[in-house]
Amino acid sequence: MFDKGAHDRDYIDSTVVIARASGGMVRDKTTGEMRMGGDQKEHHTVSSFRNSMMYFNPVVIIAGDQNPRMPSKVPHAYCVLDYFKGTHIWSEKSGGYIMHRCRFEKFNATKPSWWQAQGTEDSVTLGALAKPFKQSCKHCGTVSEQVYLQGWMCLQPACESFWKLPPLSSDAEGLEPDKKSLEYDPRFLKQKTRWPIDDSIYPLTSDSASLSNQSVLGEDCSLAYWRGIMCPYCGRCNSRLHWTAWKCENKGCSFFKKVPHAIIPPTSLRDPYFPLSTQYTLSKDTHLLYVGLHVSFAHNYRINKYTIPGIDGFVVHMIANQTVIEEPGGADDMFVALQETDIGLRRRALKSGVLKGDNYTRHFLVNYGMPYKFIAATDSVSFEGAVRPVTDTRSRLNWPAKYILAQHQGKPVREIEADWKAKEFNEVLALGYFEDQKISYHDDGESGLGSTIATLSLGAPGTMRLRMKARHHSGISSKGLYNDNPPMPGCDKYDAPYQAHLKEVAKDLGFTAARNAPDAISMMLGHGDVVIMHGAAIQKYYEHAVEHEGKLRFALTCRYIDPDSLPDKDKPTYKVRPNSGNYDGAAVGRG
Ligand SMILES: O=C(O)CCC(=O)C(=O)O
């Protein structure tokens, strides 16, 4: 994809594109512009380009409407040009650094190029000129074509003649070219490269819309189904934003295709190597040595409780067994019910993103009860009239949260009941994940948030990882600012006494970059498991992420959100009534 930030020597006409390989750019602190920040490495864009050349794989080029080299004004923010062959890759110097540059040639050169300026024609067609001039380097012996009109240069960065025009006399040194006067040699630019598959025709659009006619178990939750599609009516490229359907977002276009879903039976979630039983389930969690672990067993849950030095709070992983998973209205029933109803799950626009236009969450979500606006602005929905898995979640998570808090305080549940009731869960955030969807590292530390957060996992097994935030771990933020929060156990700088640490701030400013901390806790979340996070400090110093293996997973999270913390514009227009359920996990499996 080529958009703004084109390099001086980037070039696009109707059949040839020349561009620098991406990577190695930094933002100039004075001008705010992107510039080379070091030699470009042989990273993935360079190796993908080489692969395109070596395997005869044409690549699709997309141009943005801010690309200054486009020969005509393009109609959309991002436009697909066509398939191109990767034909040449070479090195140059730019701003004193080594840069890789690639030449692409239109795969099917006879097809009109829609981006050619209207009423213009190519002055030279591909292959109409003499072959490019070739020469072998006197120093390194490498044979290469002449790229620029100003003269042949060796383009091997390791060669002492690299990026030098031939000297005017035999005893003189070659000089670097004046970069302003560099012009491509038309013989190089307009040469035609033959590929064995030159006559092939490859489609430029996906045909996902035609995939969706059968109902194959798990297929509609697979990657192919939530990737974007091109609208078969109007041609617009659309992301899959709706849980149950593809919908064209073009105003006036009526394309809406419901995707048939075959209910994934909960029994298909069982792992034959870890058979589910009425015994306490085994744990697959791991944690770093500095994290404290206390394991207990109660009411059909194995309870792994993690404490972190320096953090006032804890994380609990309650691992369910067959008795709770299969109880009426339990995890199995909820998993089926969530597949039978559209509870309003959507991929929501994120507040910020690198690309133009809306960027969407990778997963689907919907918020019930008090609005929870963290990360993605979700349109909250009232609990009134919500389907059972949503309404039941509050009651089903109230119980473990109360139970664990009471256990933590060494009291019976009834003694904390009144305090709990005053701030019981008033929000449910439902997340739905298809294959390969996940939630990246984040915290839940919104202002006005109650100190306890509980999540019920349903469906495919997930992994929840918690790690210290990079700015606390390495004492420096991603923007390079010194972090003046006291260092805490587990961070890189803990061993130095804090005062000495402060005295050494100047030296510490020599920190190169914020480094990600290792995962302190990894919890393998099974179907029916509950995670409880307690304490604001966990959200302040730590962040969590969840991935899953499988086609379909749900996470239902309950929080308390102080209604007074919401600005008037965010207050719900409906009443958030107290939870009327009275689920008691302690009674499950008795008699
Ligand atoms: O998917 C999950 O289990 C957790 C979701 C989560 O991190 C969140 O709701 O903040």
From TrEMBL:
Q: Which GO terms describe its molecular function?
A: broad specificity oxidative DNA demethylase activity; cytosine C-5 DNA demethylase activity; ferrous iron binding
Q: Which residues form the Alpha-ketoglutarate-dependent dioxygenase AlkB-like domain?
A: 419-551
Kindly state a single biological-process term from the GO annotations of this entry.
DNA alkylation repair
* Stretches for region Disordered: 567-591
- Annotated residues for binding of 2-oxoglutarate: 433, 442, 544
Q: What is this protein called?
A: Alpha-ketoglutarate-dependent dioxygenase AlkB-like domain-containing protein
Q: Which organism is it from?
A: Massariosphaeria phaeospora
Lineage summary? Eukaryota, Fungi, Dikarya, Ascomycota, Pezizomycotina
